[in-house]
Amino acid sequence: QVQVVESGGGLVQPGGSLTLSCRASGTVFSIYAMGWYRQAPGKQRELVALITSDDTTNYADAVKGRFTVSRDNAKDTVYLQMKSLKPEDTAVYYCIVKYEADKDRDYWGQGTQVTVSS
Q: 54: buried, middle or exposed (CB in 10 Å: 19+, 13-18, 0-12)?
């Protein structure tokens, strides 16, 4: 049974930094892509950043230049380094995992709250 567990959320002041981590476990299948979505109150869940097995990355325009996604394949772990945080980055951040064996199925973490406020 696949498990996706995030960590690293919290409260940070505007302009500050925070790093999120997400580890997938429970299967021997290779991971195709890992990444992050976020959902703010009253808004739809949106893509933040995604990284594929060949290290291709995709970022939302709103975070380009401020956020960096990376992965440790040996640990089935993805990271999201967030810098120059803004109040509008406040949201629940969800980790997403896609496996090579079934790229159409998405596995989600439970979410971690990021709050940017003074």
A: exposed
